[in-house]
Write a structure and sequence with these properties.
The structure holds two protein chains of two kinds. Chain A is mainly α. Chain A is 61% helix and 0% strand. Chain A has a domain of 55 residues. Chain B is globular, with a radius of gyration of 29 Å. The model of chain B has no long low-confidence stretch (mean pLDDT 90). Classes of the chains: A mainly alpha, B alpha/beta. Chains A and B meet through α1, α2 and α3 of A and α22 and α24 of B. The complex binds iron/sulfur cluster (2 copies) and FE2/S2 (inorganic) cluster.
Chain lengths: 84, 951
């Protein structure tokens, strides 16, 4: 569904969920960069807590609950620990 | 409410004749007055320090003594003859006489000779005329058989200054300034004897020569031969005030010089510690934008972005904006709005915007344009060293033995620092340039890089790991430093990692394209130096591994013990004037001023007490998060001060969708910028000449910005934020920005000692400034790291997903050039566009030939994000496979092609790597056509508002 705006403009982008796509990519990027550490999942979770707004954490948590498509193993583990 | 303007009567800057010396004290007398000066001082300077003014023409304290004009002659007791005081050094017990009949006769003789061939056209300061008057010389007895330089054509080609050979006395001050101060070597003296003429390059005009229009020669010239056109047109300055350049992160100190309420010249301030009297073409000359007719001076509002603007009074505009923000928050919740602070605005303004967001909006949705440039610097340096800032003062480079410049182009982007650096390089310091492109430093006049590591875009971390690997392997690690100053267990973990074969120069060579031997030689050069210093720029931060690379750089410095003293360090070169300051002031959504996390109850409590409201303990949205949330329909309003996200942020089409989705966009700027085309409220901003405040440069130096003309629209920017806050029901009652700084100082441990009084007294202050360092801190981490012990972060190389493919076989990287600044809003509205009127695409001859592209052709640049069209420049400066452009002009649409890849830790966009295809085309891209149409429509809407207001 295109989002109606006050000025009646309908965004021209294809109506994929850009935000979720970005969040998945961002979580994976964080996880990939921390994967060199043995405690990568914990570090990733900590990063998400320190830098992501609660609304974004809620979205990614919700995404994992519904299958977590696209999230890497480390990212999945990190997001799971946010959901604990 | 506006604060008053305070100007001082004009006086030229003092000139002591020769540079300061640093030897053991020497005592002497000058005309009977005793004076003690450092050994190595000239007699001319000693006399000036004793209060005795010896006439001089060819000498200046910014240049090495030259001894050519012979008007500074003195007599020294017990010595024969009349030596030139500028080239004679003081000696213990010396008795100097500056006045005698003989000296007077000799001096008048010389002056007459000069006068015989001196025919300045036009007015201007004229040391020769003043000297002649002072010595009572009214006419010259020397007629050179009618031969004179008068009537030679005046070179008017430079838009900002002229050269009149008729007024030139061939004192070589300009030639020496260009060499010694600027380091460009554009001027020579052509011919011999009487026929000697100063010339730009090979008798070119100034515009055709290598001259970069820094103005150093103009400032050095003692006659009107080299003179500012603005002074010739408007007359000599009558008043002066000290202020700070509003362009780049060097933060040069300036004297704004005025006549009749109008700026006639900006002269670099000799006591400015960032620049010591030097400047570049932007700060020195490109200030005309401040009074450009495009300035918008009336607030404007409109219901929707396809409607014409309506000019209204401040009260109506503020009420409209506040009403919308409140209604949106009531409907969509407190988190549905946010603000963006600007690195172009002052510390006080930035602090106020984040305060408005946190305390007035009641959320942490505040971010700043540093998100798109140096946010990785903040993250990386905080993690490793404990403070989100560079470690040195600029002057420190004069002590460096080897300098490594990574992903920075100082001669274009930080020119005044580049001049310091080049001076050190000419003295023999080693240079390693790490950049895909052959930047000017690689081979400049009398400067040649020992190594140019031409790495492939996107392989920074592989490179930095290989450097560290090579250093450890060669046994060049500074074990004592690491043991004493760093966390040992973290170092051991890191060492195990870095010595893995995958980090060897051989293993990384495929990714970086750097030959292992060359890399090892560079590693030995840096690690073997007594003082090794690293300077870096956006070529480090604007990558998917920007933060990792910053940490890798900090690791190198710790590994080699290159921290905590002069001549070493880790030095981010900041793009905009106040990037450092805007970050310091709590512009990031997760940090309160002073880089303290919002979740820290003690810190938050202090702000809650001071501000009288509860603050959210969780981070807010970053700029890209805001855009996504806007497209998703959760984020509805944005207050954007002095920042042009529509042009500067990546993936223009996504930004376009986000901005169009907002119900209320409030833009505060001096021009109707690209972002303002999407705005519902436009609040006219004030230029740096119109307000008081402070900027903090790349060396953490807080420098005052002082108001010299009234704000064109009636308010300084901080006042506008205050009006908006009050209208929203969160009271702010500052009467002067100094009160805002006092609040910052009360709440921020690194700023405790900062006040406008102290800034007035000291000129500028490098933070931390507090009880431990009441006059500031030039060198950080001098006894211990700010975080206690340095932390070696493990920096695994994760290649970017942005890779070349058959469809997009080239890598596009972006950068800047000297004459234009950032998105160009200011410089495009000055004569600087004469040097750079459009952005072009540089590509290697082999890539060009393969595609049938010739120099000057239109080429389409296409990535998976979009397509734009530019003129091609075929050049060997870029390696095969890499293309390069700048983003100073909106129509270029460089960010139409950049993608939304970003740094893993901070979301700083990956501007430096985009896979593209380049093809020859005959017409602008669809995006450009659409952009033109949208622009024309918005301009029509603005014209409608203006003509309605006039009617
Ligand atoms: S303006 Fe600067 S670069 Fe140009 S000739 Fe003068 S000193 Fe040299
Ligand atoms: S733009 Fe930078 S280098 Fe140039 S004068 Fe301004 S602060 Fe100095
Ligand atoms: S000032 Fe000393 S010789 Fe010119």
């Amino acid at each position: 569904m295109p989002i109606p705006t006050r000025n009646g403009y309908v965004p021209a982008l294809p109506m994929t969920d850009t935000e979720l796509d970005h969040l998945v990519q961002m979580a994976n990027d964080i996880a990939r960069n921390l994967d060199v550490y043995p405690d990568a999942a914990a570090r990733t979770a900590d990063h998400l807590r320190r830098f992501w707004a609660p609304a974004l954490r809620e979205r990614i948590v919700e995404h994992r609950r519904t299958g977590g498509a696209g999230l890497s193993d480390t990212a999945l583990a990190a997001v799971a620990s946010l959901d604990a | 409410m506006a604060t008053p303007i305070e100007l001082k009567p004009y006086a030229p800057q003092p000139d002591l004749g020769t540079p300061a010396a640093g030897g053991e004290p020497v005592s002497l007398t000058v005309d009977g007055t005793a004076v003690t000066v450092p050994g190595g001082t000239s007699v001319l300077r000693a006399a000036a320090l004793a209060g005795v003014d010896i006439p001089k023409l060819c000498a200046s304290d910014r240049l090495e003594a030259f001894g050519s004009c012979r008007v500074c002659l003195v007599e020294i007791e017990g010595r024969k003859g009349t030596p030139a005081s500028c080239t004679t050094q003081v000696e213990e017990g010396m008795a100097v006489r500056t006045q005698s009949d003989k000296l007077g006769r000799l001096r008048r003789n010389v002056i007459e000779l000069y006068l015989s061939d001196h025919a300045p056209s036009g007015e201007g300061r004229n040391a020769l005329a003043e000297l002649a008057a002072a010595e009572g010389v009214t006419e010259s007895r020397y007629a050179l058989g009618g031969r004179t330089h008068a009537g030679l054509p005046v070179d008017e080609t430079n838009p900002y200054f002229r050269f009149d050979p008729g007024a030139c006395i061939v004192c070589y001050r300009c030639v020496r300034a260009c060499e010694e101060v600027q380091g460009t070597f554009a001027l020579t003296a052509a011919g011999r004897g009487f026929d000697t003429l100063i010339a730009a390059s090979q008798l070119d005009t100034f515009m055709e020569s290598e001259c970069v229009s820094c103005g150093a020669c103009v400032d050095a010239c003692p006659t009107p031969a080299l003179e500012d056109k603005s002074v010739l047109e408007r007359g000599a300055p009558e008043q002066v005030q000290l202020t700070t350049c509003a362009y780049c992160g060097v933060g040069c100190g300036f004297r704004a010089e005025l006549k009749g309420g109008e700026v006639v010249r900006m002269t670099p301030w000799k006591d400015g510690k960032a620049n010591e009297g030097h400047a570049c073409v932007k700060g020195r000359f490109a200030w005309g934008y401040a009074t450009h007719p495009d300035r918008i001076t009336s607030p404007m509002i409109r219901e929707a972005i396809d409607q014409p603007w309506r000019e209204v009074g401040w009260e109506e505009a503020i009420a409209f904006a506040a009403g919308r923000l409140k209604a949106i928050q009531a409907q969509y919740g407190p988190d549905s709005i946010g603000g963006i602070t600007s690195s172009r605005c002052s510390n006080e303004e930035t602090y106020l915007v984040q305060k408005l967001v946190r305390a007035g909006f009641g959320n942490n949705n505040v971010d700043t344009c540093a998100r798109v440039c140096h946010s990785p610097t903040g993250y990386g340096l905080k993690t490793t060293l404990g403070e989100s800032a560079g470690t040195q003062a600029f002057a420190s480079v004069a002590q460096a033995d080897v300098v490594m410049v990574i992903g920075a182009n100082p001669t274009d982007a930080h020119p005044v620092f580049a001049s310091r650096l080049k001076r050190r390089l000419r003295q023999g310091a080693g240079l390693i340039v790490v950049d895909p492109r052959e930047i000017d430093l690689v081979s400049a006049p009398h400067v040649r890089a020992d190594h140019h590591l031409q790495l492939r875009p996107g392989s920074n971390v592989a490179f930095v790991n290989a450097m560290a690997h090579a250093i450890v392997e060669a046994g060049l690690a500074d074990g004592d430093f690491i043991r004493e100053r760093c966390e040992w267990p973290a170092y051991e973990q890191w060492r195990e990692f870095i010595l893995r074969p995958e980090n060897s120069p051989e293993a990384t060579a495929e990714a970086t394209g750097i030959a292992p031997d060359t890399l090892r030689a560079a590693a030995r050069l840096y690690a073997g130096a007594d003082n090794g210093a690293i300077y870096y720029g956006l070529g480090v931060s604007e990558h998917t591994q920007g933060s990792t690379m910053v940490m890798g750089i900090a690791n190198l410095a710790m590994l080699t013990g290159n921290l905590g003293r002069e001549g070493v360090g880790v030095n981010p070169l900041r793009g905009q004037n106040n990037v450092q300051g805007s970050c310091d002031m709590g512009s990031f959504p997760h940090e309160l001023p002073g880089y303290r996390h919002v979740s820290d109850p003690a810190v938050r409590g202090a702000f809650e007490d001071a501000w009288g409201v509860a603050l959210q303990p969780e981070p807010g949205l970053r700029i890209p998060n805001m855009f996504d949330a806007a497209v998703a329909g959760r984020f509805k309003a944005l207050y954007c001060q002095g920042e042009d996200v529509a042009q500067s942020d990546p993936n223009t089409q996504h930004v376009d969708a986000a901005l169009r989705a907002l119900d209320c966009l409030i833009v505060q700027d001096i021009f109707l910028n690209e972002t303002a085309r999407y705005a519902h409220v436009f609040l006219p901003g004030s230029s740096f000449l119109e307000k008081n405040g402070t900027f903090t440069n790349a060396e953490r130096r807080i420098s005052p910005v002082r108001k010299v003309i009234e704000p064109l629209a009636g308010h300084e920017d901080w006042e506008v934020t205050q009006l908006l806050s009050n209208a929203l029901g969160y009271p702010m009652n500052y009467r002067h920005p100094s009160e805002i700084m006092d609040e910052i100082a009360r709440l921020t441990p690194t700023f405790t000692g900062v006040s406008y009084d102290r800034l007035d007294r000291l000129g500028s202050i490098q933070w931390p400034c507090n009880a431990d360092a009441p006059e500031g801190t030039p060198t950080m981490h001098s006894t211990a790291m700010v975080r206690g012990k340095g932390y070696f972060a493990v920096t695994g190389y994760v290649p970017t997903e942005e890779r070349t493919t058959r469809r997009y076989p080239l890598l596009l990287t972006t950068g800047r050039i000297l004459s234009q600044y950032n998105v160009g809003a200011q410089t495009r509205r000055t004569e600087n566009s004469r040097w750079h009127g459009e952005d072009v695409l540089e590509l290697h001859p082999s890539d060009a030939e393969f595609r049938g592209i010739r120099d000057g052709d239109w080429v389409g640049v296409e990535s998976r994000a979009g397509e734009t069209v530019l003129h091609a420049v075929v050049t060997g400066r870029v390696p095969p496979g890499v293309v390069y452009t700048t983003f100073h002009f909106p129509l270029t649409g460089a960010n139409v092609v950049t993608t939304d890849n970003s740094d893993w830790a901070t979301n700083c966009p990956e501007y430096k790597v985009t896979a593209v295809q380049v093809t020859r085309v005959t017409q602008p891209s669809d995006w450009q056509a659409g952009y033109r149409a949208f622009t024309e429509r918005q301009e029509a809407l603005l014209d409608a508002a203006r003509s309605e207001a006039k009617a």
